[in-house]
From TrEMBL:
This is Small ribosomal subunit biogenesis GTPase RsgA. Residues 89-239 form the EngC GTPase domain. Zn(2+) binds at residues 265, 270, 272, 278. GTP binds at residues 129-132, 183-191. GO terms for cellular component: cytoplasm. One of several proteins that assist in the late maturation steps of the functional core of the 30S ribosomal subunit. Helps release RbfA from mature subunits. May play a role in the assembly of ribosomal proteins into the subunit. Circularly permuted GTPase that catalyzes slow GTP hydrolysis, GTPase activity is stimulated by the 30S ribosomal subunit. PANTHER family: SMALL RIBOSOMAL SUBUNIT BIOGENESIS GTPASE RSGA (PTHR32120), SMALL RIBOSOMAL SUBUNIT BIOGENESIS GTPASE RSGA 1, MITOCHONDRIAL-RELATED (PTHR32120:SF11). It comes from Persicitalea jodogahamensis. Residues 79-241 form the CP-type G domain. Its cofactor is Zn(2+). One of its GO terms (biological process) is ribosomal small subunit biogenesis.
Length: 308
């Protein structure tokens, strides 16, 4: 019996790296069920597993067990609405690459990503890319945004990937951790990846070609080792992180500034919409909670109401 780390998933086969850095093509033995969840895939990139060698010549093995997870990320399945899809496991941080211009990442999307990360108890970081495209007014707006999010406990970095600006800070951020990198198309995520890990683009292209063989590319992730004990997970699906497993009444728990006030509302089940004696609404009116954050919260609660 061997232990290994799942480096890539294609839905039915998994690349598992053993303690000697050897890769094995493994499949599951039987069916695994995830307690409390209906999932379309039982194993995620980042999972630690035990496996038996099936054919040493062919480098194939059979996964016999999944070791306990520290955490995991899921999103709603594209095809099965009542199911979740596992994206990654045992993650140290979730990083979102955003841009304020060309294209503009909405504050609602940023907040939804942060709430999703909070719900999975995974620290989140924001990287504001394309500094070279900002004028003075936009730089001032970005500085205000970064100050807001940093006051809530989220680290923020400013980069221009194509010019190498801020890359030292990014490398420092990644060192010694397992990180998930996400971002809308066009924000420069690929440029950032290429800048911090030259040669990754070729490997990413190979993954895309591999995944196109009769499967959905958006559901698969791959983990890259950038340095010893430093891993980066790139998964297109992570940008679609939703709140499918979150009850509307729980959403405020994942806003740090609201969480601090939850015991101060008149009603213990206050949803901070139109209830009297709401400490959260009072904080918004007094400017202690940013209106943009409160708007994002209302949007998420509304989305929950519509979905249910």
């Amino acid at each position: 019996m061997k232990q290994g780390l799942v480096m890539r998933s294609t839905g039915s086969w998994y690349d598992v790296r053993d303690s000697g850095s050897h890769l094995w093509q493994c499949r599951l033995k039987g069916k695994f069920k995830m307690k409390g969840f209906k999932v379309t895939n039982p194993i995620a990139v980042g999972d630690r597993v035990t496996f038996e060698i099936e054919d040493e010549t062919e480098n194939t093995g059979i996964i016999t067990d999944i070791l306990p997870r520290e955490n995991y990320l899921v999103r709603q399945s594209v095809h099965k609405t009542a199911h979740a899809h596992l994206l990654a496991a045992n993650v140290d941080q979730a990083i979102l690459v955003v841009t304020l211009y060309f294209p503009r990442t909405s504050l609602g999307f940023i907040d939804r990503f942060l709430v999703s990360a909070e719900s999975f108890r995974i620290p989140a970081v924001l990287i504001f890319n394309k500094q070279d495209l900002l004028d003075d007014a936009m730089r001032e707006f970005q500085a205000e945004l970064m100050a807001l999010y940093e006051s809530l406990g989220y680290r923020c970095l400013a980069t221009t990937a194509t010019a190498g600006e801020g890359l030292d800070q990014v490398n420092e951020l990644l060192m010694g951790k397992v990180s998930v990198l996400s971002g809308h198309s066009g924000v420069g995520k690929s440029s950032l990846l290429n800048a911090i890990a030259p040669g990754l683009a070729l490997r990413t292209k190979e993954v895309s070609t591999f995944a196109n063989k009769g499967v959905h590319t958006t559901t698969f992730a791959e983990m890259f080792e950038l340095a010893p004990d430093t891993y980066l997970i790139d998964s297109p699906g992570i940008k679609e992180l939703g709140l499918s497993d979150t009850e509307a009444v729980e959403i405020s728990h994942y806003f740090p500034e609201m969480r601090e006030l939850l015991n101060e509302c008149r009603y213990h089940n206050c949803q901070h919409i139109n209830e009297p004696g709401c400490a959260v609404k009072e904080a918004v009116e007094e400017g202690q909670i940013a209106m943009s954050r409160f708007d994002s919260y209302l949007s998420m609660v509304g989305a929950q109401d519509n979905r249910r």
